[in-house]
Queue: 3 jobs
Job 1
Amino acid sequence: MRLLIDAVAGAVGSGAFAVLVAVPRRYLGEAAAVGLVTGLVFGVLSRAGMDGAGAAGVAALAGSTLSEVLARVRHQPAVIFLLPGLIPLVPGVTIYHAMADLVTGRGSMAVQAAGQTFLWAAAIALGVGLAAALIRGIVPQKRA
């Protein structure tokens, strides 16, 4: 049940962010679907025991792959679907703790939280880059 809640929350958060960044209305459903996939993959992997950064990287790979496929089907840039779809993977709590620790003078804890945030960001970037390179190498996008 918790996994379903996480997946739906990912879709709702991604859909809301898509509205915020002015994704065209006709693509809001696809942007939310990418968020659902990333939230679901992240939830499954983290519950299976994978660490947060690793699960975020694999989820970003899945979301980026779906975004690249949607980009080819809809003849739009992949970023329209990908940017909102990555919202469920943002380590907001870790970023908050890093900043709170920094402000309250707990420097070593701030560095630890910032390092964890960097690992998440690197894993997400690696997942996005790998999917983009693979899909674009296999199925190049047609120019209009």
Job 2
Amino acid sequence: MGQFISRIKISTLLNVIIATTFIVAAILLIIMVNEEQREQALLDAASKARVMLDRNLATHTYFTRQLKPNVMTLTEPFLSSDYFDPAWMSSTYAVREMDKYFKELSDEDYYYKECAINARNPENEADVYESAFIKELNENPDLVERSDIRMINGKPYFVILRRGEVIEPVCLQCHSTPENAPGDLVKVYGPNRSFGRYVGEVVSAISIRIPLETAYVNADRLSLKLTGLLLLILSGLFTIQFWLNRKLLFKPINALHTKALQISTDHSRIGEEIQLPSGRDLAELTRAFNTMSISLRQERDLLDARVKERTSQLNETNNQLHIQMKEIEQLQETLREQARRDPLTGLYNRRYLSESLQQELSRARRARRSVSVIIMDIDHFKKINDTHGHQIGDKFLLEIANLLSTHTRDFDFACRYGGEEFLLVLPNATARNTFKRAEQIRSKCADIRIEHENKDVSITISMGIATYPRHSKNVDELLTKADEALYRSKRRGRNQVTVWKEK
């Protein structure tokens, strides 16, 4: 995301940000206006519902307090106890009939119903939504009214449900059993509906629905008009700010950009200046650019001279560095070679043996040839050191080392294996040939004489031989078996050569 933004021109980015801000602000304003219009529609619907409710409650009050008492007083001498006429004796009947006349006179899709479960008149029977509210009224004495927005047949309505009639003792005459009710009432409504009530039961609710579709359509129409007006205004404002930004901001910036590119691609143009634009901020920026360009010219002139001087010094330093690197490489090679050599005899040491013998066995395995190992040990070497001193012992070690160095082939190698032990590796040598070589070396070692205190001191050596792959197929086992053959020579009396074999 950051790389994408960095490739966009600042003018394009600024225009996109401003346009986005305008659009977002317009959308938010339109949404707020639309929500306000819908909220106002709900307030209007609630007000209308309240008027309908108050009007019908006033009708009920009129029937209860004036019409029914007066009519019953006038007709009491003439009517039997079974007489019942819903036209003036039931305010619910009157309100329902008035609502029918109202619907004939008005085009509004208003809905008013005094609903009940098992209503006396089927026209007042509660639907599922209203029945649930009536049941909840009987379960929750604190519930009085509920309002909501419902979609009915795909159209929005503001719905109010309000607590209705509660059974009182006087009501049981008509609502307890058919036997207690007026006979004419049973004839009109039958012996099954709205009986079995009890005192305190909420039997009805007032259900009002106010249509919201027209108000919502008007709100959407207003939002659409407002959208067009805002788009026109914002387009004009965007055009004006685009022109001002282009003239006062981006044109001077583009001039700086062009001159910077010219200077960066053609160093001869360093030091050139740009005409100051209008506007204090951009003028200061341009003045700073001009100052920088002049300073760069001066610095470049000084830098060229310094570069020539430093280049000469660097070449000399580089030559000295090459000489030192060669000396270091030679010293490292010397140190590596010394690390492989025994400091007394100059032969390879045991560390070199382990690496080289492993490589030699790998080559032998590929070429399908043999490799022999001879381990030799000076007999009674400790006695020589104790009797004649370590200097005499060291001289014998040097003599044997010289002997091995002069009597080995170019591809053989010898090493000092331990204190008085030596090891000779003979590539491409069979056990038989190796035995002959070992006997020659043993014989020559016996001829070595070192004078000490007017006496000749001599030595003998014991030797053990093991051959790859006849005796072993790995380094460790090959050396172990050669060592075992050496100790067999010592057990047999020393000063002899033994080739390893199974006991």
Job 3
Amino acid sequence: MKILVADKRPVVRAGLRAFLRSTEFEIAAEVETVAEINSAVRRFSPRRILLDATKTAFDEAKIPERCALVFFHTTWSKGKLLQEIRTPPQRKRVKKKNRLLTPRELDVLRCITQGLSNKEIAKTLEIGFDTVKEHVGNLLRKTSLADRTQLALWAVRRKVLENS
């Protein structure tokens, strides 16, 4: 299966290249910027686009449906990374600004609507506290909201978490 790797850091791309060489996956192309993704997708027709979850936001209209976005964290184990590549999540459109929320952002958002603190979210989702803070920041940025309370109300009123 062809994969497009998108990360501005050469060391991360090199690590992914070395690791994926020993798997069933083929790196069709590597790109450094969001602007390069569209041309690489047209040229190489990858089935997965591997992206650092903490670095990038994408407009769904620019990514073909046949390409599954796989948001990864550099802290993941090799097993976790392979699992995520093999079973990519469904993309969910968020009405405001047509920004995509990653599956992990949806998990964090669900916890926020339950009133959990960042520390409680980290424990519940078994991720780092700093990772939770990054996801919350991404959610606030993508929705153009000011705080967690507004975020929770927004999610409930717009039924963002239904069917996800």
